Amino acid sequence: MSQKRYTRNIGLSYAFTTLMNLSFTHGIWMIFLASRGFSLLQLGALEAIFHVTSFLMEVPTGSVADIWGRKASRIAGRISFSLSLVLMYFGSSFPVQILSFIFSALGYNLESGAGEALLFDSLLLDRAEERYLQIKGKDELFYQVSNILSFLLGGYLASCNYLFAFGLTILTNILAFTVALFFREPAIERTQRLVLSGYGARILASIAAQIQGSLATVRKSPSIAYLIIFSESLFAFMICLFFYLQNHWTNLGFTPTDIGVVFSLHAALAALVSVNAQRLERLLTQTGILVICPLLLLCTLWGVALSPYSRSFYVFSGVLEGLLAPTISTYLNHLIPSSLRSTILSFQSMVYSLFMILIFPIVGYIGSVASLPFAFTLLAVFASLLTASYLVQLARQKRKRR
């Protein structure tokens, strides 16, 4: 096997990540839909529909990436997401918005496991997997830089005309689609090959084989499931803050441009931490990171809920995002076999969707009948109980290993 056959996938992945995440609607869509007359309860329901779709489709789309290829999955994801943007902008009724969020979820599903799998397997086949944390940290840096630009420019474009934000986001997705055409598909052994002339039953059988293999792998390595549940609960809390703070700060009189600046500062801090994730892991150790991150989250949640400095506390939470994302990704990918990588990583996104299905509508409902600060307080209480339980369990596991 010749070495460095897949090196080009690394640079292409950086470009794809940058273009895909130049989403100028990400920090303003709740404000946009609210301006179109949709209530806070409806917005919560739409986000719940997104995650119900994501929950149901994560494993099938992850299996598609393992069966048909990571490249095809990433290409299809950009098509689906672009269609969702068109429907969101032009859709004036709630049913059309439901369809928009379904396509948005499919775009997310098709990318969620395939992206990491393509990158890690490219390094694995070139016998350079030890570089993954470094490369994933850089990939996270490009992601956060895209976020910074998206929040700054997206807020400004929204203040001028929402059409500019939606149109430019569609354009960047088309460019990401073009970049994806040049990926080289990693030549890995697949657990179940699909015969192109087969029928729907054969497709379902292939997907079922992927799911069964993934469940068997998780049962053999409980640490996979444990780490997935822990990390995705943290990310669910963070994303709840991200979305509902858009409406909360709007109610306080801040403009989309002001909100975009806050989000961009958060992304800048996350980018700074992510690019130094490898150094920080050596300094703090993996166990140290898994203890520090939930404590930082609690600090952020309580600060947003109870203090007048909610923007400062949210910006500070970028430390958690920038440190946790590449560290968790690296650890999980070393535990997962290549033939099932996309499917098991899709389990990770499915767990995240489950948390969002449970939490997001509740926060929206409480925010509509009481207030968003009260909803943030309840979120902080729940996070505190969950973190306490997690730390107790972590201490027990440490004692067992002695």
The oligomeric status of these chains comes to single chain
Radius of gyration: 21 Å
Structural class: mainly alpha
Tertiary shape: globular
Q: First CA to last CA: what distance?
A: 42 Å
Major beta-sheet overview:
none
Q: Strand share of the residues?
A: under 5%
Residues in helices, as a percent range: over 70%
Order of SSEs: HHHHHHHHHHHHHHHH
Number of strands: 0
Quickly count the helices: 16
Rounded average pLDDT: 81
Uncertain segments of ≥5 residues (pLDDT<50)?
191-199
Molecular structure report:
The protein has 402 residues and is mainly α. Helices cover 83% and strands 0% of the residues. The protein has 16 helices and no strands. Helix 6 (132-160) packs antiparallel against helix 7 and helix 12 (286-306) runs antiparallel to helix 13 (310-316). It is globular and about 55 Å long. Mean pLDDT is 81; it is low at 191-199.
SSE topology:
Blueprint: H1 7-20, H2 29-35, H3 40-68, H4 70-90, H5 94-125, H6 132-160, H7 162-180, H8 200-220, H9 222-251, H10 256-274, H11 277-284, H12 286-306, H13 310-316, H14 318-335, H15 341-369, H16 372-401
